[in-house]
Amino acid sequence: VQLQASGGGLVQPGGSLTLSCATSGFAMEYYPIGWFRQAPGKERDFVGRILWYDGRTYYADSVKGRFTIRRDIAKNTVYLQMNSLKPEDTAVYYCAKSSDWSSASRIDYWGQGTLVTVSS
Question: What pLDDT sits at residue 27?
Answer without folding.
Answer: 67
